[in-house]
Amino acid sequence: MHYSLRFEWLGMVFDISTILMILVTSLAVLFMCLGLTRSLTSATPGGAQNVMEWIVDFVTGITKSYITPKKAAGFVTLALTLLLYIFLGNQLGLLFNVNTAHHNGQGHEVSQQVKDMLTISTNDEMKQQKVEKLEEELNSTDPHAHGVVIGWWKSPTATPSVTFALALIVLLYAHYLGIKKSFGGWLKHTFLNPIHILEEFIIKPLTLPLRLFGNIFAGEVLIAFLLSVGIFGSIPLFIWLGYSVFVGSVQAFIFTTLAMVYLSQQVNEEH
User: Fold this and answer.
1) Is residue 88 part of a domain?
2) 146 or 17, higher pLDDT
3) How far apart are alpha carbons 165 and 172 in whole angstroms?
4) Is residue 132 included in any domain, yes or no?
5) Distance CA 73, CA 217 (A)
């Protein structure tokens, strides 16, 4: 089991490793775009520009498939950002894992502040259970035990709060566009049909983020298991890593496509 350092602020709990990976992913997208667009030219483009143009054309194709052509151009930037962020975020956890092992003994005592950050909980009973388990692992005399392992590097999309935040941004933006286009039409579309109420406030907010989170989290759990097996897991690990790259790419495509579908339902004239 991997722990995460967390802190509480204004009644909210923040995961330090998740914040770190959100920042790393954002910087990766920024540097990738800057690197691919450093030498733009209207003449024969180089390899980097060709890659960027292919990505933009691919995203433009997704957008125009669902949003009317005269409006699609305004959503290409959003679709491009979603695709690159989710794609790179999905792959980061496949590169390597950064974990630190901590245990009591031999003059290396874990401070009370760190213990508090590892056991933050919503109620006292659950916190006490976490404290007891933490102390047991810290003081374990099992020579094969690693103590308390704190995870620092993972795919940000393997954290539900990240995928739910991405989905919330897309869905709120879609409703904003619907209200901006026609408040009466948005009310009629959203609330007059019970199926639409279920779809807009339960199905979409749950399926969009959980599909992404479930696939990436499950992949990283299996990778961690194969790494723990040692040499016997090397061949399955190699195969699974290749498959995980494919799954991460497909999930980025699916999330971006569904985002454009949900936006199109609010902005297209026929809706």
Assistant:
1) yes
2) 17
3) 10
4) no
5) 33
